[in-house]
Amino acid sequence: MSSLSEKIEALIRPSIEAMGFELVQLRLMDGNKSRLLQIMAERPEGGMTVEDCAAISNQVSAILDVEDAIPDAYRLEVSSPGIDRPLTREKDYNHYKGHLAKVETALPSTDGAASPASSTGSTRGGWCSSSTGKKYSCPTATFNRPSWC
Description:
26% of the residues lie in helices and 25% in strands. The protein is α+β, with helices and mostly antiparallel strands. It has a five-stranded antiparallel β-sheet, with no helix packed on it.
């Protein structure tokens, strides 16, 4: 069985894409009194306005209410990825190839290199170079919430 986050994503992704946006990240976090559903989206060419966020929020709220997808109270937060954008898609790595990124891996690097590191493009089974210039293997599956510096 898939997680609640995966079910929510399957419900809302088609509508977000039909509106002309790409879903960058969806996070469902438990809070003290309610859950927080955080959605990051942007236009394929980049950019996002406050009006875009409001339109996505209204659409997602309607879908989640009709489907009763989240059993408890929740708060919805819609935003652009912003300047500290998370690296969630292969296209993010390719688009910002060579830029400095903060990368923490679940597995230790072979040379003990710490973040920040520079992306060498798609890291699907690929390489990153550390701040010391040494390259090391860093498949994206081992990343813990990578983002740009």
